Amino acid sequence: MNSITPVADTHPEIHWAENGETLNADWRSESGMSPPRRVVIADDTMTADTAYRLACEGTGMLWRGDFQNARQLLQALARRVDRPSRKSAKAAKATQATKAPDAAKPGLANESAMPDAFHRHRLSQSQRARALGMVLIPFDQDHSVPLRRAPDVKQACTEAYGNAGRPYVTSLRELLGIVGAHEWRKKGVLIAASEGLEAFRIHPHYGVFAPVRTDYVPLVAKAPLPEALNAEPLAFDVGTGTGVLATILAKRGIARVIATENNPRAVLCAKENLQRLGLQNQVEVVDTDLFPEGRAALIVCNPPWVPARPSSALEHAIFDPDSRMLRGFLEGLSSHLLPGGEGWLILSDFAEHLHLRSRQQLLDMFESAGLRVLGKIEAKPTHAKVADVSDALHSARAAEVISLWRLAEAD
């Protein structure tokens, strides 16, 4: 259970001047952020306003003071980054006033505004992450942090990075994410009991999408199993991630499940979860893209729901550029189904409400792949953002529906 994910041996370097010397270290960023070109030394004397100015300029602040003070500075920096400027507030009011006449025309305002709102939201999130990523923390080659009152983060960083090999620098924001992921990995995510199945815990690894949104899990637990499983009790879980849906299938009594993944971290994560649950002999995890060899009576896939380009490796479970995984699953489904078999596609219509993909486009994908719809079951999301009216994408989130589409080969 304590296996370490291998990482690349080479990393970009970060450079800075300190005590009259030019120094360097490895730069670590799982989000893919490049090292700041300019770095200054910072300590407990730095004010939040100064940090905010430097962060907005793209200047990294390599921390040499008290670790807990660095956390407080990051919180103060976040408050300043999130505070809307007078200029942006005035512009927002002007935009709202300009679009008001279109509001009376059904669908017109949303159709034109939602994609723009989504892209603005993504840009804003990217800019926010970049600014908050300017508070930098040094590490020794054993993942220890050489700062006063620094916590012991060796195990958490080893799980994320593997063996360090030499000193490195990363952002405090990334470190806090790594520590948070380590805590989730230790305690696990509770998957509530549903449809006669007992509750269980899934332990996500860093860099593997955590099933903290479990709205879709009951759909897989209650959908009627295809009769073809009686003759050939074999199911595929395409893109298994943590292994949560493969676990549901196994707990529903399917004798053999093959779960596929092409993310090495997810392969290891799924194997460890299945072993912890005692399902390692019932569920096989295969390192491959999309489908394993052969055919199955049931094939399940929960692809990324939003057809947009991920800005980091950590976002690949959320964003699917040009619906590549969705199309790949649909186009290969019929050739991997046994006669009478079904494909279960778990998909939110969030992208439809953002006007990034229409329902007709999805139905056209089914038809062009030679598939027909046997039926679908639905669920409304229950996460906190659904009720957050201040969220820029609230109208789309409030209308979202998650569906399990039951698909079969067209007649």
Strand content: 15-25%
Within CATH, the superfamily of the largest domain carries the name Vaccinia Virus protein VP39
- In the sheet with the most strands, the strands line up as 11-10-9-12-13-15-14
Largest sheet: 7 strands, mixed
Please tally the β strands and state the result. Answer: 15
Q: Assign the CATH topology of the largest domain.
A: Rossmann fold
The total number of structural domains is: 2
Helical amount: 25-40%
> Please, what is the average pLDDT?
88
CATH architecture of the largest domain: 3-Layer(aba) Sandwich
Shape: globular
Structural class: alpha/beta
What's the CATH first level of the largest domain? Alpha Beta
Ranges where pLDDT stays below 50 over 5 or more residues in a row are 1-8, 91-109
